[in-house]
Each structure stands twice: as structure tokens, then as C-alpha cells.
Automatic annotation (TrEMBL):
Protein's UniProt name: Pyruvate dehydrogenase phosphatase regulatory subunit, mitochondrial
Organism of origin: Leptobrachium leishanense
Subcellular location as annotated: Mitochondrion matrix
Record's GO cellular component terms: mitochondrial matrix
Reported function: Decreases the sensitivity of PDP1 to magnesium ions, and this inhibition is reversed by the polyamine spermine.
UniProt keyword annotations, A-Z: Mitochondrion, Transit peptide
Limits of the Aminomethyltransferase C-terminal domain: 864-949
Subunit description: Heterodimer of a catalytic (PDP1) and a regulatory (PDPR) subunit.
Family per record: Belongs to the GcvT family.
Keyword rRNA-binding: no
């Protein structure tokens, strides 16, 4: 007994020693508690004041006494006063002392846990402690969600809405006590990719009516937002954004600095060149939205258990079968990892780890006291990305935080930390943001700062959240790594994930967020730590076309990397792989010009132009080693059978033939677009886009019979791929192989193992990725340098040179080649992008997507991939298209572009994109329209084409022989 009492005393002492002399906060939420001391009649009672929904709790006027309980009536708030007794007293020096005690919620939680473990009994547990805490966990549930932050709560809410009621939500601390609790609550639709805007827009609409629906006040206030531009480039990026928002039907307007001043009384507008106003953006209390979600889910039957930690997920035969928690095991069919910054550790804790690449950084904002003339709650959110800050109204004062240039990652072995507490204040670190704030709102100089909030938030390698089903474990879903957008995206992301679980796929293309875009390679702690230090500032950095990440580079390289680098290669990265963009000729210092970072004509224009010219007139070599390569084989016909089932084209072709084909889903949409070579009767070589390595692998594995003799091998690392493009490619190769390479001897779309130079066993394929004539060589890596050297050496007399991906991109876009991940996705069918010729409906095999395509053939298509040639666009003076630009037909918005490039052949910009219509789209419909493409608010006339210009082709070949889109 004495021990437990001593423990308690020590605990109180610890709290006491953490006293922080904070000013008396306004009180808006109280929890009274009374604890019965075991085996005695003594009671301890207290009051926990949740301070403005931050995780700070305050015990007011704590007094230590000797031997008896003292009740202090100084709280003066009309509620039960605090009383806390401590016997024996912790130390003489503290006797009779009196202080305002700040107790972080985590300590309160520790205190409660500690007391419970020692047999203390809660007579009146804190208001937020779920009554289910004391109830045993159910032995099984259909789905277990780990994490009671906004994401876990949103998933539970949406699953329940979709009719799943056997849901168990487990939270290690209290609901919303992770990053959610500190959230600044801004719901902004201003996002960099369209699916994020879609999610945020949905969230905004949902939050608006959530209070009415659930009865839980959510603090939803429509404030609108103003994004400021201090530079012309920033204004261009806002104009591009405004076009995108309007496409989604979100009202928004580019406004003058004067108008900014009218919308917000405190903003200094003198350094502004313009701004974007989004009147429907809003603020909420994120913790309360979380509680509202939970309440609704509970009413639909979901069970919620706080103070319950998931230790790891139980797995059998690659599938989730349950969870192990600190309160026992629960069987389940589905598991959802919504563990916020803990998601990474939790993923790693399984016997078969799940890679969830995210890492937490400290994120700061300050709170001021109420202004003398209180700022209205409805004052717009202000985002000043050039100053790296955001500002919103808060309790008559302001809340302002930002994304600093030098973020502080925190290496959290998070499992042992139950609830996030306010981290150390770091005013030196916050100083640049504070300076930016005072510059933007000079009148705040005289203002009293209440406190600096510092809370971890998780960031991912590419600034997009991680969602979807694990590639390795069936029914293991994740929604985490919100990159400080969890409140804005929470509703929408939860909805998409719930749909994914219930229907088997999300209702829109979420590939940019799909967990399968990553592999284990992005999960190194060092990689993550370095990358998130770049990602956090990037949130407010100006993003010009073709920007690249600078950290985590040179992770995957071709054996030729050093050789190409020495020849002037400028690099970009895809799935960790370095790929040359273009080659700076000797003597030309591009870095000094620094015009690459522009919305206008970039400084590499002429360089890429000369690479394109060389591809068309002579021969170029492009290292394409990053492509994903698999081999599938079997002792019998199983390999052919499974591929015929998984792919829409006919793969029962003679040995040596190459087939371009789509890997479709049940809806007929592209899960992958690739080339398959029949190496022999029972072995196939599959070439896919670089970022398909995880997704395609997992799709194949999931559809392959588990008990067959099929062998699937990822051979990406085994081969260097060199693309030899141009009319002289055959001359170079025949000289090196002593074999005739003319189309008569080596027809297009054909593969032969040959010797090139001294190296034997090179897979030479008569296809390029550009629509130009040439070959691709798949070279075992140990021969790569030799073959490359030979090609360059023999190629000299044919004018050979290196080329990069920008040249390839220009060539493929002017040929109207679609690119998976950019133009094609799981919601686009071959019929919608004019690739019927790659679908063999009558090949004698059922294949996935066949029924959907048959239906679509009957009903017609309602969107159509189209090529647009810009007519009145001045390449030198006008803004360049990128992707995501609105397409107008006869003045009506009908779609958006998916990729664009300057065509050196046409001397014009070419955009590819989809036209949508409520009526089936026919070629006639396309041809009859007048088209415009809008670039940053300015519209340019465009000519629409459904087929590429035949004049672009230097050799007469069938379309299917030429097209390869990645
Ligand atoms: C200072 C700050 C300001 C922000 N402002 C904004 C904003 O204005 N707008 C916006 O959109 N976003 C904002 N964000 C981001 C937003 O708050 C987060 O993205 C969001 O709250 C993340 O929610 P979550 O559910 O993923 O994570 P969390 O809220 O951290 O929830 C994860 C939960 O999982 C629980 N958990 C972890 N492991 C286990 C386990 N093993 N067993 C059981 N439970 C477990 C944790 O206890 C935690 O409660 C801000 C973030 C910060 C830090």
C-alpha cells in the first residue's frame, strides 16, 4: 500500500517539477476525476482542464499538504474545484507551496495508467476516457483500425456509412491525442495534385454538415483563404492553381493586393503582386471532427477502445488474420494502419514487415492572445508561401505557423510514446517564421504571444500520403503520412480508403498516393530522414515544371552512371533510379544560366532540340535501365495461360515476338501498360514502367495460383537497357554484331539474342520508346560498359551521341504515345485512348477486363484521349503547358491535359489529354469542336487530333509496331 502511495506521490512530484508558469488560459473544457486509493477510504480528486483543445491540461492551484486533503476554491470557474492530497508530502520544501501546474496530457494518461495498474479505481473517469476502456476486447471483428486520429476515425466513419459495422478502432492513448490534437484546423482545397483537391473538397463539404449530422460541435467556420504572391512566378503558379480549382467547380479568383487588404484587415500588402482567393476554404477543430466521426461510427455499431495498443498484426499465408494488442488478441479480416507517425514502426513490427515510408518532423505554430480589437473568427486564412507562413484567426488572436527551410526531423521510435505531447519550444528555430509573420502583419509587434506549439507530423518521400493495400500482405491497408494536410484530406482520404476496402478499388485514381508506388527502397531511415528535410520546405517552395528532388539521390544507378555523368548528363530521379534528362555539351555552363527553373522556355531547349534532331537524322543512345523487368516461366503452359488471363492482347505469338499490351482490371482500366517478349515457349520477359516495380509485382502475385509451378522473377537489376534510336541504329548494330539488321532480316517488334562486340547473349529488340526506328538492347549488367563503349566507338562515323529523357518525351508525345501513370491509369480503358488494336477480345481466353470492354464497345466511350497542337502559342514568349491544364471545347470545359511537350518536328507545343462528354464520343464529335487549352488563365487555340501526323514518321510502319508509351 505504501508503495503505491509512494508511486503516486512520485508521480505528482514529477508533475510538480514540470511546473510551467503559463498565464491563466481561458477554460473551455473540464474533466473532474476522483480516485479511490486502494484499501483505504481516501480519495483523490482533481480537475483536468483541457486548454483550448491542445493537449495541454492544467491542474490549477495544486497545493501539497501534510496528511489531509485540502480543497482549493480558487479556480473560480463555477465547477468543482480541484483537490489533490498527497501523504506523506513529497518534500518539506514544497509544503504549502502553491502554483499553477501545467500537466501534459501524456502525464495525465501515464498517471491514469499507472494508477490502474496498481489497483486504483476511477470513480469518475475523465470525460474522454471511453467507457469501453474497461470492457474486454471482442474476440473478433471484421476490421481493426489502429489509430484514433482523424484518419482512423474517418475510415471508421466511412466504412460504417458503406455498411460495414463490425469495426474495432483501437487507440493507444486517447482519441485524437496524436498529431490531430495539435492540428491548426485549416481545411484548404489548394493542393498540388487534382486528387488531393478532390479529397479536400469532399472533406470541406462533409465537415460543414458533420455537426448537424452527429450533434458534435466541430468548430466549422467558413473563412475562405488567401494565398499571397510576392513574385510574378508565384502568381503564375497561383493562376495555374486557380484554373485547376475552377475545373473542380471550386470558386476561386485571382485578386489584386488592394483586394487582399480589403479581405483581411491586418495584412501588409506592399510587397505583393497578387493573390488567389478561395472563398469556401474553412477552419475546424480537428480533434472535434475526429470525435464526431467516432460518434457516428459508434452509433453504427463500431467499437472504440482507447488505451489499447496494437503490438503487431497477425498474418497467415500472406494475409491478415488478426492483431496482437496489449490487451490480448483479436481476430480480424482486415487491418487498417492509421497510426500517424507511428505507422512506420507498426508496419515494421510484423513478422512480414510492411514498408510505410514516412518520417516525422517537428512542426511549429504560435498562438497569440486576443487582439485589442479581436480578429473575427471568419477572417480568411492567409497563406504566404514566399514567407513560408500560414496565419488564421484563433480565439480573437492569431495562430501562425509555417514550413521552414531547415526542418527538424525527429527520429521517433514512437511505439513507447502514448500520446503526443508538446515538444520543446524552440524560438531560435521559429525566428525566421516569426520575422515573416511580423513582416506580413506588422501590427502584431505589440502583441502578446501565448505560446509556441511544437508537434510532430509525418512526411513522406514525395509529399503525398500513403494509402491503400500493402503489396505484401493481403487486407493490410494503410492511411498515414499526411504531410501536414491530414485535416484537409481527412474526410476524402478516409472515404476513398473505405471504398477501396469495400469495393476492392477506390472510386477515383489515387495512384499518386498508392502505397505501391513505393518499395522497401524508400524505407531506409537515413533516406527518409534526409528526404523529409527536403519535403517539408517543398510544401511552400515554388514548384516549376520538371522540378526534381535533391535528396536521396544516386540510390539506384545504371553501371554507366559515371560514364554518362562525365559526358555532361543532367539527372532526374524515378523510383530511386537516376535517369539522364539531357547532356550539356562541353563548354556550355547551364547552371550559370539557371533558366531551367521557369514556367517559360527553359535553357535546355536547344540542347534537347539537337538530341531530337540526332534521333531523327542519325543515331542516339539513351540509357533506359530503370525500366522494370520481370521474367515469368513455367514447366508447362501455365505461364502462357496466366498471362493470357492477365493481359488483353494475345500473347500466344511465335517465339521472339514482342507484344504491347495492357494489364487491365475488371473495369477494363489500365493497371499497367507494358511490352512482353516471348523468349521461348514457356518463358516471357516483361518490360514495364519504372514505377510499376512494386504494383505490377503484387498484381501478378495476387493473381497467380499459389500452388502452381509458375516462376516469377524480378530481373530489373540484371539488365542494363540501352535504346539505340535513329535511322543509323541498324548500321551501328550490324557492324557490331556482323548480322544484317534491316527490317527484312530483323522485322519490327522482334527480339533476338545476339552478340554485340565481345559480349554475347544481348537481347536485342526492334522497338524504341519514341516512335522512331531503332532497337533496345537488354544487356546483362557485367557487359554494359563494354557494349556502351562499343556503340559509341563504332557509332562515331554515324554521328552517334547520348540523349536523355527530355528528347524521348518530346518524341513520344508528338507521336501521341500514352504513358502509364501520366496519361493512362486504372480508370482509363484501351477503348478510351484509341488502343482497341491492342485488345484481342476473341483470342480464345477469358481475360480480366474483357466483359467491361465488351460493354464499352456497345455503349461507346464518354472520354477520349486526344492530341492537341497549340496554334497561337509563342514558344519564346508564352508560358509553357505542363500537365493538368483545362481543355475547352466550343467554350465549354471538357477535360484536362495529362502531358505536354514541345515538338521539334512540328515547331509547336503538343498536349495530350482527355475530352469528356455526357454523350458517347465519336471521331466526328472530336473533329467538329473548336478547342482551347488554358495555361495559367490564358487560353490558346488548339487543333485536336485523334491520330498522329503521318508525316512525323520517318519510316512506314504499322501503328502498333511503333507505339510504346512509357
Ligand atoms: C502543428 C500542426 C498543425 C497542423 N495543421 C494542419 C492544418 O491546419 N490543416 C491540415 O490539413 N493539417 C494540419 N496538420 C496535419 C494534421 O494534423 C495531421 O496530418 C493529422 O492530424 C494526422 O492524423 P493521423 O490520424 O494520421 O495521425 P494522428 O493524429 O497522429 O493519429 C494517429 C493515432 O494512432 C495512434 N497509435 C499509434 N500507434 C498505435 C498503436 N500501436 N496502437 C494503437 N494506437 C496507435 C496514436 O496514438 C494516434 O492517436 C497539422 C499538424 C501539426 C502537427
Amino acid at each position: 500500500m505504501a508503495d503505491t502511495w509512494q508511486d503516486f506521490s512520485n508521480m505528482v512530484l514529477e508533475i510538480f517539477l514540470r511546473l510551467a508558469a503559463v498565464g491563466r488560459p481561458s477554460l473551455n473544457w473540464l474533466t473532474a476525476y476522483h480516485v479511490q486509493v486502494p484499501n483505504t477510504r481516501r480519495r483523490v480528486s482533481g480537475m483536468c482542464i483541457d486548454w483550448l483543445r491542445l493537449e495541454m491540461c492544467v491542474l490549477t492551484s495544486l497545493r501539497f499538504t501534510t496528511g489531509h486533503t485540502v480543497t482549493d476554491r480558487k479556480t473560480g470557474n463555477g465547477e468543482d474545484p480541484l483537490s489533490l492530497s498527497c501523504n506523506p508530502p513529497p518534500s518539506d520544501s514544497l509544503l504549502g507551496s502553491r502554483a499553477l501546474v501545467t500537466m501534459p496530457a501524456r502525464l495525465l494518461s501515464d498517471l491514469r495508467g499507472h494508477l490502474q495498474r496498481h489497483g486504483w479505481r476511477w470513480l469518475c473517469p475523465p470525460q474522454r476516457a471511453a467507457s469501453s476502456d474497461v470492457q474486454p476486447l471482442p474476440p473478433r471483428a471484421q476490421v481493426v483500425i489502429c489509430g484514433g486520429g482523424i484518419m482512423g476515425a474517418s475510415v471508421a466513419y466511412h466504412l460504417a456509412k458503406l455498411g460495414w459495422h463490425d469495426i474495432l478502432l483501437l487507440e493507444q492513448g486517447r482519441l485524437g491525442a496524436g498529431s490531430t490534437r495539435f492540428c491548426a484546423g485549416m481545411v484548404s482545397t489548394v493542393k498540388h495534385i487534382s486528387i488531393e483537391t478532390e479529397m479536400a473538397n469532399y472533406s470541406n463539404k462533409l465537415y460543414q454538415q458533420l455537426e448537424q449530422e452527429t450533434g458534435v460541435p466541430t468548430g466549422y467556420t467558413r473563412t475562405g483563404s488567401i494565398s499571397l504572391a510576392q513574385t510574378q512566378d508565384r502568381l503564375i503558379s497561383l493562376k495555374r492553381m486557380a484554373s485547376r480549382l475552377r475545373m473542380k467547380g471550386i470558386p476561386c479568383e485571382i485578386i489584386t493586393p488592394k483586394k487582399v487588404g480589403e479581405l483581411h484587415p491586418l495584412i501588409n500588402i506592399h510587397d505583393l503582386v497578387g493573390a488567389m482567393h478561395v472563398p469556401e476554404d474553412a477552419v475546424v477543430s480537428t480533434a472535434d471532427v475526429t470525435l464526431a466521426f467516432v460518434k457516428s461510427a459508434r452509433e453504427s455499431g463500431a467499437q472504440v477502445h482507447e488505451h489499447t495498443s496494437v503490438n503487431h498484426v497477425l498474418v497467415e499465408k500472406g494475409q491478415v488474420i488478426g492483431v496482437d494488442t496489449d490487451r490480448g488478441q483479436v481476430e480480424c479480416d482486415y487491418f487498417v494502419n492509421c497510426a500517424g507517425q507511428w505507422a512506420y514502426e507498426l508496419g515494421q513490427s510484423n513478422e512480414e514487415p510492411v514498408s510505410i515510408p514516412l518520417h516525422a518532423c517537428e512542426h511549429f505554430y504560435l498562438l497569440t492572445r486576443r487582439l485589442r480589437t479581436p480578429l473575427e473568427d471568419s477572417a480568411p486564412i492567409v497563406v504566404d508561401p514566399d514567407g513560408r507562413i500560414y496565419i488564421r484567426s484563433w480565439q480573437g488572436g492569431i495562430l501562425s505557423g509555417g514550413f521552414e527551410k531547415n526542418p527538424k526531423p525527429i527520429f521517433t521510435e514512437g511505439r513507447n510514446q502514448l500520446e503526443i505531447q508538446n515538444l520543446q519550444e524552440d524560438w531560435d528555430h521559429f525566428e525566421p517564421l516569426l520575422t515573416a509573420l511580423l513582416r506580413r502583419m506588422p501590427s502584431l509587434e505589440a502583441l502578446e504571444i501565448l505560446r509556441l506549439v511544437n508537434c510532430p507530423e509525418s512526411f513522406t518521400p514525395d509529399m503525398r500520403c500513403v494509402m491503400g493495400e500493402s503489396p505484401d500482405l493481403l487486407r493490410y491497408f494503410t492511411l498515414a503520412g499526411m504531410n501536414s494536410q491530414g485535416c484537409s484530406l481527412g474526410g476524402g482520404a478516409g472515404k476513398f480508403l473505405a471504398e477501396w476496402m469495400v469495393y476492392g478499388y477506390p472510386q477515383d485514381n489515387v495512384w499518386p498516393m498508392d502505397i505501391k508506388r513505393f518499395g522497401a527502397l524508400q524505407s531506409s531511415r537515413t533516406f527518409l530522414r534526409h528526404r523529409v528535410m527536403e519535403v517539408m520546405p517543398l510544401i511552400y517552395d515554388l514548384k516549376v515544371p520538371r522540378w526534381d528532388f535533391q535528396t536521396g539521390r544516386q540510390l539506384r544507378t545504371s553501371p554507366l552512371y559515371d560514364r554518362l555523368d562525365a559526358q555532361g548528363a543532367r539527372w532526374m530521379e524515378k523510383h530511386g533510379f537516376e535517369r539522364a534528362k539531357y547532356f550539356v555539351p562541353p563548354g556550355k555552363d547551364l547552371l550559370a544560366l539557371d533558366q531551367s527553373k521557369t514556367f517559360y522556355k527553359p535553357d535546355w531547349f536547344d540542347i534537347v532540340g539537337s538530341e531530337v534532331k540526332c534521333c531523327k537524322e542519325a543515331v542516339c543512345v539513351i540509357d533506359m535501365s530503370s525500366f522494370t523487368k520481370f521474367e515469368i516461366s513455367s514447366p508447362g503452359d501455365q505461364a502462357l495461360d496466366i498471362l493470357q488471363y492477365l493481359f488483353s492482347n494475345d500473347l500466344d505469338v511465335p517465339v521472339g515476338h514482342i507484344v504491347h499490351t495492357g494489364m487491365l482490371n475488371e473495369r477494363g482500366g489500365y493497371e499497367n501498360d507494358c511490352s512482353i517478349v516471348r523468349l521461348n515457349k514457356r518463358c516471357f520477359f516483361m518490360i514495364s514502367p519504372t514505377d510499376q516495380q512494386v504494383h505490377c509485382w503484387s498484381w501478378l502475385r495476387q493473381h497467380m495460383p499459389s500452388d502452381s509451378d509458375l516462376v516469377l522473377e524480378d530481373v530489373t537489376w540484371k539488365y542494363t537497357a540501352l535504346n539505340l534510336i535513329g535511322p543509323r541504329a541498324m548500321d551501328v548494330l550490324s557492324e557490331l554484331s556482323y548480322a544484317p539488321m534491316t527490317p527484312d532480316h530483323f522485322p519490327s517488334m522482334f527480339c533476338k539474342e545476339m552478340s554485340v562486340g565481345y559480349a554475347n547473349g544481348i537481347r536485342v529488340m526492334s522497338m524504341t520508346h519514341t516512335g522512331e526506328p531503332g532497337f533496345t538492347l537488354y544487356i546483362p549488367i557485367e557487359y554494359a560498359l563494354h557494349v556502351y563503349n562499343e556503340l559509341i566507338s563504332v557509332g562515331q562515323k554515324y554521328g552517334i551521341r547520348n540523349a536523355g529523357y527530355y528528347a524521348l518525351r518530346s518524341l513520344r508525345i508528338e507521336k501521341f504515345f500514352a504513358f502509364w501513370g501520366q496519361d493512362l491509369d486504372a480508370f482509363t480503358t484501351p477503348l478510351e485512348c484509341g488502343r482497341e488494336f491492342r485488345v484481342k477480345l476473341d483470342k480464345g481466353y477469358e481475360f480480366i477486363g474483357r466483359d467491361a470492354l465488351l460493354r464499352q464497345r456497345e455503349e461507346g466511350v464518354f472520354k477520349r484521349f486526344t492530341m492537341f497542337i497549340l496554334e497561337d502559342h509563342d514558344t519564346d514568349l508564352d508560358l509553357w503547358p505542363w500537365w493538368g491544364e483545362p481543355i475547352y471545347r466550343n467554350g465549354q470545359h471538357v477535360g484536362k491535359t495529362t502531358s505536354s511537350a514541345y515538338s521539334y518536328t512540328l515547331g509547336r507545343h503538343v498536349c495530350l489529354g482527355f475530352i469528356h462528354s455526357p454523350q458517347p464520343i465519336t471521331p466526328d464529335f472530336i473533329n467538329r469542336g473548336e478547342y482551347q487549352i488554358e495555361i495559367a488563365g490564358q487560353r490558346f487555340q488548339a487543333k485536336a487530333k485523334l491520330y498522329p501526323f503521318s508525316s512525323l514518321f520517318t519510316q512506314r510502319r504499322r501503328k502498333e509496331d511503333l507505339e510504346l508509351g512509357y
